[in-house]
Amino acid sequence: MYPYHLVGASEVDPSARSLCEHAVEVSCLLLGIAKPLVRFIAPSDDGIIRMKQPINAYSPPDGREIFIRQGLSPFELVNAVIHECRHCKQWQDRAWRNRAPEIWERDADLFCHEFWGEHSRAGDHAAMMATLAAIRLELVKTEVSRRRVTVEAMYHKPGRNNLSPGRIEFAS
Ligand SMILES: [Zn+2]
Question: Tens digits of per-residue pLDDT, 62-100?
């Protein structure tokens, strides 16, 4: 068994925490789930969290919490967070309960692959923050254009042409 203990909030590197918070925010926007609580853990002989193998991150079955090992590189940290956010989404969806562990992992890895896209996976905290901001901006732009298409479709629909251009609002 590999034991870990919970790291106190004051012992967590503030830049790691803020990177984590941004990664959770962007992942959850993409996944449409509530943000899970992030806790940091560290290996410790008398730790009460016991794992069958060494881990970077873990998401328990309620799908509302993520445990991240302290001391990961900026890329490892963000990648672990987005991978675990996908597991949170899986835990929250009953349809996933009977699927094999390797399907869970493949799906989470695929989500990470899509998350990063063409963006660089290298760099320090500042570079990683900038990458997250760029991914978030892409997301917002996609969302705005999706809404615009919805509005145009409504506007051109027979029977809905009582919408005058001045009254067009984004559909929610
Ligand atoms: Zn996993």
Answer: 999 999 999 999 999 999 999 999 999 999 999 999 999
Q: 146 in the Ramachandran plot: left (φ > 0), alpha (ψ -120 to 50) or beta?
A: alpha
Distance from Cα 163 to the centre of ligand 1, integer Å: 48
Measured in angstroms, how far is the CA atom of residue 58 from the centroid of ligand 1? 7
The pTM of this model reads 0.84
Nearest Cα neighbor of 37 from 46, 29, 28 is: 28
Q: Which of 119, 123, 91 is nearest to 107 (CA)?
A: 91
pLDDT computed for residue 134 by the predictor: 96
Q: Rounded to the nearest whole angstrom, what is the distance from the C-alpha of residue 9 to the centroid of ligand 1? A: 24
Q: Is pLDDT above 80 for 153?
A: no
Cα–ligand 1 centroid distance for 59 (angstroms): 8
- What is the fold, at CATH topology level, of the domain defined by 2-139? Zincin-like (3.30.2010)
What is the per-residue pLDDT for 9?
A: 87
Q: Separation of 46 CA from ligand 1 center, angstroms? A: 25
Round the CA-based radius of gyration of the chain to a whole number and report it: 20
CA distances to 75, 116, 158 from 127, in Å? 10, 13, 49
